Amino acid sequence: MNTPDPLPPHDNDAERAVLGSLLLAGDPDYVRRARTIICAEDFYGGKGRVTFEAMCALAEAGTPLDTVTMGGWLDANRPGQVTTAELSQLVLDTPTYTNMAHYARLVFDTSTRRKLIEAMSSGVRGAYELPGGEALSYAQNLLTDLHATQAKGEASDMRSVADIALAGRGRTWTWGISDLDEWTNGGLCHGDFHVIDGYTSTGKTHFGVSIAWAAACAGARVGYFSLEVGKRDLFWRLAGHVSGIDWRLLMASKAADSVRAEPRQRAVDTLTGMDTLWLFDRQRSVEQITMQAVANSLDVAIVDYGQLVAASEKGHGMYEQNASAAMKLQRLAKQENIAVVCFSQVSNAGARAGEDHGGVIAAKGAGEWGSAATTFLHMTRDAWAIDPAKQGEVTFSMMKSQIGPSGCSLMRYLDFKTSRFRRSWVDQAKEAPWWATD
Predict the structure, then answer these.
(1) What percent of the chain has pLDDT over 90?
(2) Which domains does the chain have, with CATH numbers?
(3) In a 10 Å sphere around its CB, with 0-12 CB exposed, 13-18 middle and 19+ buried, how is residue 227 labelled?
């Protein structure tokens, strides 16, 4: 015998409490604040939806809420659906209006779970009816659409916005370079989308390793999503960064009596004891990155890398592909409240033609990365210089910033053995410690 499906998740008490709170407050501003969290469709019951619609309509007109004005609007626009007696009972059942936002979040939570159940059920049907690849894309799109529709904006009235503005940017985590922390108003912060671009062999992955370690040590939950370097190599690069030893020597050193055995083990123990840092190397879409970022409650997501191309005209296939990736990563930052750092490689075509100035033109016109980013940081390095000091010089130029200065630059010297960025040049051949050489 078939058993009936359980009722979708709903919280009738929370729905009644939020409606009663709004009636008890009687202030249109409270309704506007509630709308930053929930909408009429978030109510499970028809009466709740109709009542909230009436409240929103009166608030838009600037009319104070009470049972009389509500009853008049309902009689004129939704006759017979909600009575004045039912409105009066909502007020009697609500002890205070100060918990309105808490009740609204409960309603939003159960609404989200209902929509998730519906999306997952559609995904299961797709798995039966569609080819494997199409079914996977269909399921990913369902979840992406759910993320988009469930994203709620912040309050738009100036009183509420002032409270948010005066609270500041919130907690931030260091880049590992103090000047960049100053340029970005304190460092990496929830909701920021940073794009860092450069040509091949500029030092982007080294910088990513440096950021990941600095932010994790500062207390952030960090995920490093590599589309180029495997987790094994990333682990040893981190070990080199932690220990100050050439990561390639650490990776190759296995003998127990090696001079590097003890510092190697200390680096391994340090990394295995780090419970705020995750490495990913098999995510092949922004949707997969989003799922992992949400599942692991990340504060910082580092994506290495997104491809930049010299495609300046809309309609170009690669342009559209890059535009889509840029907007999805921006959405991940804003909607999931995560600091996203994306490393991107600039096409060399423009530079070879003599048309590009340090990659900036190609980057600015490639797939909307520049317009989507909170900050746009450009890295340059002369990888083919004869002078080793010149080879290690990395210039960071802030091309765009919504949270700090732009048009500024700084220089650091990259130690390729340890992924560390120094303020001054250090001759590694002369000053390398004894355990870093054979």
Answers:
(1) 28
(2) 7-167 (1.10.860.10), 172-436 (3.40.50.300)
(3) middle
